[in-house]
Amino acid sequence: MTDRRQGRDQNAAWLAAEQWRERARRARPTRGMSGPRMILTWLLFGAMMIVGTLIGLVFLLIGWLMLPFLRHRMKKRMERMRADQAQDVGGGTSYRETHYQETHYRQSRGRDERTGKRERDVLEGDYEVKDRDGVD
């Protein structure tokens, strides 16, 4: 048995492994957390949880209290949009009608000089009936 022990002491890999074990043993804490320290840690953690919950409840209440004001603002915005739409409808032609008139005017002016055909064949439901021969 002493022969084996002497072989281990001279083996470089064995010595390195022993040194590694010793360093790992020193790095590990020798005793666990004491009772008062553990209780203090749990109390601190519990207090942080309670404070976080209270802060969350405060923000929730603030949000609930802001809802009527936000609803009032949105209602005013919708009334303003409806008034603008009513002004557009009653004040003359709407954007859609103006766009249709401009497009229709451009289309009627946009005929090809050689063939007399329109540049755009179909727009807003307008169409041309062609003969079977394919001539207008």
UniProtKB/TrEMBL annotation:
It comes from the Bacteria. Residues 96-136 have a biased composition (Basic and acidic residues). Keywords: Membrane, Transmembrane, Transmembrane helix. The chain crosses the membrane at residues 39-70. Residues 81-136 are annotated as: Disordered. The keyword Membrane applies. This is Uncharacterized protein. It comes from Halomonas organivorans. The lineage of its organism: Bacteria, Pseudomonadati, Pseudomonadota, Gammaproteobacteria, Oceanospirillales.
